[in-house]
Design goal:
This protein is an all-beta fold. The chain has no helices and 11 strands. Strands 2, 4, 5, 6, 9, 10 and 11 form a 7-stranded mixed β-sheet that branches. Strands 1-3-8-7 form a 4-stranded antiparallel β-sheet, with no helix packed on it.
């Protein structure tokens, strides 16, 4: 069994910062790409940022220059540092990972989500 658990979501004022964390645990053999997605009310889930196993990153245009994705491979953690937050960043943020488990199968895993609300 593999789990991804997010934390760090909160209510923050516009212009503020938050750091989201995602911990991967369970019977993990290897982790490939990991990413953060978000879903705002009434909208489809969208990609926010991804990071490869060798550190290559990709961001949706709306967060470039404000958000930074990073990993701690030893701890099986992925982070999303969010600065200069805007009301339109309000959403449930989900962690995603391409993980090889002990069954020998690569699977796409999702966390349960963490709420980020940007409001004054």
């Amino acid at each position: 069994q593999v789990q991804l658990v997010e934390s760090g979501g909160a209510l923050v004022q516009p212009g503020g910062s938050l750091r989201l964390s995602c911990a991967a645990s369970g019977r993990i053999v290897s982790i490939n790409n990991m990413g953060w997605y978000r879903q705002a009310p009434g909208k489809q889930r969208e990609l926010v940022a991804t990071i490869t196993s060798v550190g290559g990153t990709n961001y949706v245009d709306s967060v470039k220059g404000r958000f930074t994705i990073s990993t701690d491979n030893a701890k099986k953690m992925v982070y999303l540092q969010m600065n200069s937050l805007k009301p339109e960043d309000t959403a449930v943020y989900y962690c995603n990972g391409a993980i090889l488990d002990v069954s020998g199968t690569w699977r796409d895993y999702w966390g349960q989500g963490t709420q980020v609300t940007v409001s004054s």
